[in-house]
Amino acid sequence: MSMNFSAKDVAQLTSLQIIEGAAGFLDEAAVTLIAAINALKEGDIEQSKAAVQAVKDYKTALDWMMSERNRLERDRRTTAGVFGAPEFDLGAARDEIGRRLACLRSAGAD
Asked: How far does CA 30 lie from the centroid of its chain?
């Protein structure tokens, strides 16, 4: 499986696309591991060691990629909360003040 993306393409990937890509890499790692097991059965220890290391490298890279993606998503949500906060609704505030003043007037009239 070969996946070549530019930086712009990667920034536009959805989490589902990343997971699907990671699943593809894990499938490739499984094929490599099966090849390592077969090489080990045939007595080729060096090939199996290299294949097992390749599988470990795939897993490490995928774990790092997913943790970084999660961190970026969390930071993006935090930033959006700061800059994307709803505007102060002056009309609603005016209505609330009027309602409270009306309550005070009614309470003072008794």
From this structure: 24
